[in-house]
Write a structure and sequence with these properties.
Blueprint (H helix, E strand, L loop, with lengths): L8 H8 L1 H11 L34 E6 L6 H13 L5 E6 L2 H10 L6 E4 L7 H6 L7 H5 L16 H7 E2 L2 E2 L2 E13 H7 L7 H13 L3 E4 L6 H15 L2 H7 L9 H15 L12 H9 L3 E7 L2 H4 L10 E4 L16 E8 L7 H11 L2 H11 L16 H13 L8 H4 L4 H12 L5 H16 L11
Parallel strand pairs: 1-2, 1-3, 7-8
Antiparallel strand pairs: 3-10, 4-5, 6-8, 6-9, 6-10
Helix pairs in contact: 3-15, 3-16, 10-12, 12-20, 19-20
């Protein structure tokens, strides 16, 4: 996994709204175009710098923290704020937990009065690429170079999963802290599977056989969040990349000619059509949103659902007692290049320090606090999601979802992978999603699907306004 990227479960929904933003996106931050210039000086601070206070935070400087109040809630942020004020005892923290990030934050950015820390997530997140291109983000190099809290002189960057550094970069500078480590796959109730004597299948043929058995038990083998086709798109991409290797994703991200025509993409598309044609999809799932489909899955109306590792926490209020949310890798198509026990892993949940924040020094120190083992461990305790901090889950009593996610991260190792085109080329993404929706509903053939996706990619590649990026 070797490229900058920024999205998460929140961006599953954010990307579903990008069709509208693709039209309006040029004006989303029009008032911000004269933003910061990436200079090394930061606002706030002024105290003597040391290993314990690498940014020179003034103990009495106030700090404004805005958190997306979504599937993770904001209790973890309150804990992090407590850690911050235990060091800077005179600091007053203005904590806000909101859902409509763009609506509330855009006027503040336009006025040059953004918060010191922003959890930029959700369906209404601000477009990171636009913020970066208009100089609205602080260069986080000093954060990654600073000593990690409680790590005996080890730099922050050396305590993190490598994908954290890769995903932070825009214009060759780290601008974003993607905090949560997201794991994608097919989710099931381990308790029900044990009761039925079922086991997730490793090969495509075995998956079809298992699906037939599940269907015979009166349960739909699969459900997906039809109103947000990016969820089922993950299954397609995972099968394709595991079949053809990471080069499949590299070519798509690099806008290479005929990247979407790759045999592995076609095979994965045909596999989705086979699930549909054999009646293995939950009836009506194409019209359901994420909560509706996931609730039906919790009710055992479907055995598998495609999602990321936020699922357990998002559904905790509706999951019945004894439900063991567990992730399995997607099955392998014939001739797969990668092993079964790997998957897509990304660093997500984008935290930023705006370049015009009143207390940039405090903002970076807050992020450093989040990246302490204590801060990261508490996040996992409260959300059932791992973070980018290495070793932070050691000794924790993990939930089934968190435990299976971490096990899959570990088993996949260097074979885990990621893709980036959805954020790099946001105007293209709604077109891909639309094509995926048609495919999942069985309304187009695999060839028609790949043709439509390649058309969108070619249009993007030929657009002189598009910043092209490459992977290898």
């Amino acid at each position: 996994m070797n490229a900058p990227h920024n999205y998460s479960r929140r961006v599953f929904l954010q990307r579903a709204g990008l069709a509208a933003m693709a039209v309006a996106g040029s004006s989303v931050l029009a008032g911000c175009a004269s933003g910061g210039d990436g200079e090394d000086t930061v606002s706030g601070g002024g105290a003597d710098k040391s290993a314990e206070n690498p940014f020179g935070v003034n103990a009495a400087d106030p700090l404004t923290v805005v958190i997306f109040n979504g599937g993770y809630g904001d209790d973890y942020a309150k804990f992090h704020e407590g850690l911050y004020t235990s060091t800077f005892t005179e600091a007053k923290i203005d904590h806000k937990a909101i859902t409509d990030i763009r609506q509330q934050m855009q006027p503040l950015f336009n006025a040059g009065n953004p918060p010191d820390v922003l959890d930029n997530a959700g369906a209404e997140a601000m477009p990171i690429s636009t913020l970066a291109d208009t100089g609205q983000l602080t260069d986080l190099t000093p954060l990654f170079d600073a000593d990690a809290i409680g790590q005996d002189g080890t730099a922050v960057r050396d305590t993190l999963n490598p994908v954290a550094i890769e995903s932070a970069e825009y214009a060759s500078k780290p601008m974003v802290l993607n905090y949560a480590l997201q794991v994608y796959g097919l989710w099931y109730d381990r308790a029900m599977f044990d009761e039925k004597g079922w086991e997730p299948a490793e090969t495509w043929d075995d998956f079809l056989a298992l699906s037939e058995e599940i269907k015979g038990a009166g349960i739909a083998p699969m459900a997906h969040q039809g109103k947000y086709p990016y969820y089922i798109q993950q299954v397609l991409m995972d099968m394709a990349v595991k079949h053809g290797g990471p080069e499949v994703a590299y070519a798509i991200d690099s806008l290479e000619p005929n990247a979407w025509k790759n045999e592995s993409i076609t095979m994965a598309a045909e596999a989705l059509l086979e699930i549909k044609s054999k009646g293995y999809m939950l009836e009506g799932t194409e019209g359901l949103d994420h909560i509706q489909s996931q609730t039906k899955w919790n009710e055992h109306k479907a055995a598998f659902i495609c999602c990321g590792s936020w699922l357990e926490n998002e559904q905790k209020s509706v999951a019945p007692a004894g439900f063991e949310t567990t992730v399995a890798p997607t099955p392998l198509l014939p001739g797969a290049a990668l092993p079964f026990d790997c998957t897509r892993v990304e660093a997500a949940e984008a935290f930023i320090v705006p370049s015009k924040a009143a207390n940039q020094a405090g903002g970076m120190e807050y992020l450093r606090t989040m990246l302490s083992k204590e801060g990261a461990a508490e996040f996992t305790k409260l959300t059932a999601a791992p973070t980018i901090v290495n070793g932070a889950t050691e000794g924790l009593d993990l939930s089934p979802g968190a435990a299976s996610s971490i096990a899959l991260i570990d088993s996949g190792g260097d074979n885990n992978w990621n893709y980036y085109y959805g954020i790099w080329y946001s105007p293209m993404d709604p077109k891909i999603q639309s094509a995926v929706a048609e495919l999942a509903a069985g309304r187009v053939s695999a060839a028609e699907f790949t043709t439509e996706c390649q058309k969108a990619a070619d249009e993007t590649a030929s657009d002189p306004a598009t910043q092209k990026r490459t992977r290898s």
